[in-house]
């Protein structure tokens, strides 16, 4: 292995690299953090220490392959690994601060000229982690396909906004706020309220909520993993801000039919696919944002390998066809948008993901220029009423869910626009009815309703589900995992207050 060359810009920052091969011991080498060289085969883990009193053995961030890393300017620096270190938050906080002092704040571009930057990293949980969804005491036996935290930062010359997508069942509002706080003021023109975070809702990822531990009375959240996830997600925002470059934006729309169904209301289904693409000055793809609504639940409770389900296959297929990062934006999947599952296999998940990618890529062959690129945004923090008998209250009281839940639960809704393209968040798995009502509040142009945006409060169901649950397939289950009857109406009032 060749030692990377010198770098005067990164003095005081050191990296520990450990090479692991099956059947061999570990070899540890400590260097100043420098530009990566071509990687040979094998699994690598790295930890970063910054000369701010942080030990050089650093924090480990979960088993991952060293095909991605931190990029400063045009160079890539690897930052991967696993951790059982109780001081992981402090050490990873130093990591993010280390990136910040390396000049990641950046300077806004010319007014009226769009700049876009992206970043991504794997966020696989360690083997043995509790997996979210389906049932208790389901633990990871390995990784089938990687989970990612991906970020894209937009800059219109006067303002910035970041969108982060994490492959997990759904980040709670407290975790969202922690990611924002970790970014802090380290990126110019990007206050925490303009960092929007969404989850893809895979049911083969870590228990980031707490509901799927060894039994109903014990949380499945792992504090050390959550700390590393928070910091790695924040680091992607900082990295994306470093990588800002001039961009033009186009969009396309199509439909994806044939495998997504509404189990509860078969006649109520949104097959729309909307995609935004950002191109550099040479016409090369920087990023795509693809919006579609369907649970990533091809894989069932028998699956014990970590996977992003069909969403992972979709993103991989997009990456095979186009350079850049590819973010999947989940839609309104509550009440109850599911994939057809004649079999519960990785092969079927691959088929569905590649089908959506094929349709998305075909639509991008005839794109429409977005035109205006002015950023606008608004948000509202508000309380959603919580029904007295909902399990959410009991879970919070027992500490299984780590957030205060009483008669109300605090959450947030956000709206933002990039020119005519508009986005609005729903803090959970909302029914298609509320997506339709949200789009009706928006002007013409591409519209994105981000389910599981900024929070995961469970199902946000129409009032009719509470009145006559037996009239809807799975109705009783859906309302049992909902904040309550008034959640949808309360959310729509909040969105009406912020969507101009």
What does this structure look like?
There is one protein chain. The chain has helices spanning 88-101, 173-183, 223-242, 310-321, 346-363, 391-397, 432-440, 463-467, 475-480, 487-498; strands at 13-20, 26-32, 43-50, 70-72, 75-77, 115-122, 142-143, 148-155, 160-166, 195-199, 245-246, 248-255, 260-262, 272-279, 285-292, 305-306, 325-330, 337-339, 368-369, 375-385, 408-418, 421-425, 429-430, 447-450, 459-460. With 500 residues, it is an alpha+beta fold. It has a domain at 1-103. The longest helix is centred in the middle third of the chain and has 20 residues, at 223-242. The protein is globular, with a radius of gyration of 22 Å. The relative contact order is 0.12.
Major sheet strand order: 10-9-8-6-11
Helix percentage = 10-25%
What structural class do the secondary elements suggest?
A: alpha+beta
Give the rounded overall mean pLDDT: 84
Compute the CA-based radius of gyration.
22 Å
Shape estimate: globular
Low-confidence stretches: 1-91
Number of strands: 25
Number of contiguous helices: 10
**What amount of the residues lies in strands?**
25-35%
Major sheet: size, sense and barrel closure? 5 strands, mixed
Cα-to-Cα separation, first versus last residue: 57 Å
């Amino acid at each position: 292995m060749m030692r990377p060359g010198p770098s005067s810009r990164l003095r005081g920052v050191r990296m520990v690299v450990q090479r692991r091969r099956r059947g061999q011991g570990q070899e540890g080498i400590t260097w100043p953090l420098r530009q990566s060289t071509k990687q040979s085969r094998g699994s690598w883990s790295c930890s970063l220490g910054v000369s701010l009193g942080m030990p050089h053995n650093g924090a480990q961030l979960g088993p991952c392959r060293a095909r991605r890393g931190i990029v400063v300017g045009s160079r890539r620096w690897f930052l991967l690994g696993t951790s059982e270190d109780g001081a992981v938050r402090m050490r990873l906080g130093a990591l993010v601060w280390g990136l910040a002092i390396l000049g990641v704040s950046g300077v806004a571009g010319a007014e009226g000229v769009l700049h876009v930057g992206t970043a991504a990293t794997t966020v696989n949980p360690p083997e043995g982690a509790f997996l979210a969804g389906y049932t208790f005491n389901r633990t990871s036996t390995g990784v089938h396909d990687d989970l990612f935290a991906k970020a894209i930062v937009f800059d219109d010359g006067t303002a910035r906004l970041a969108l982060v997508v994490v492959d997990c069942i759904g980040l709670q509002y407290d975790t969202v706020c922690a990611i924002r706080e970790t970014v802090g003021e380290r990126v110019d023109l990007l206050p925490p309220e303009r960092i929007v975070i969404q989850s893809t809702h895979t049911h083969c990822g870590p228990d980031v909520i707490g509901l799927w531990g060894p039994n109903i009375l014990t949380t499945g959240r792992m504090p050390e993993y959550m700390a590393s996830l928070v910091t790695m997600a924040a680091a992607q925002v900082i990295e994306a801000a470093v990588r800002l470059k001039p961009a033009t934006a186009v969009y396309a729309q199509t439909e994806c039919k044939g495998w997504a169904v509404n189990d509860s209301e078969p006649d109520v289904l949104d097959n729309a696919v909307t995609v935004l693409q950002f191109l550099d000055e040479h016409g090369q793809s920087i990023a795509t944002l693809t919006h579609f609504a369907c649970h990533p639940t091809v894989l069932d409770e028998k699956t014990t390998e970590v996977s992003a389900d069909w969403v992972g296959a979709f993103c991989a297929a997009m990456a095979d066809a186009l350079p850049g990062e590819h973010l999947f934006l989940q839609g309104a999947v509550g009440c109850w948008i599911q994939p057809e599952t004649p079999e519960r296999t990785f092969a079927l998940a691959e088929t569905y993901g590649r089908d959506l990618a094929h349709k998305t890529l075909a639509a991008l062959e005839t794109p429409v220029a977005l035109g205006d690129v002015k950023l606008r945004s608004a948000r509202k923090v508000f309380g959603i009423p919580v029904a007295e008998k909902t399990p959410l209250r009991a879970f919070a009281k027992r500490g299984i869910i780590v957030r205060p839940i009483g008669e109300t639960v605090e959450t947030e809704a956000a709206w933002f626009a990039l020119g005519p393209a508009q986005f609005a968040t729903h803090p959970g798995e909302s029914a298609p009815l509320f997506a339709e009502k949200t789009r009706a509040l928006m002007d013409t142009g591409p519209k994105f309703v981000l389910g599981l945006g900024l929070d995961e409060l469970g199902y946000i169901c129409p009032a009719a589900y509470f009145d006559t649950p037996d009239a809807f397939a799975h109705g009783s289950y859906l309302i049992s995992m909902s904040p309550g009857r008034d959640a949808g109406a309360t959310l729509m009032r909040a969105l009406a207050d912020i969507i101009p």
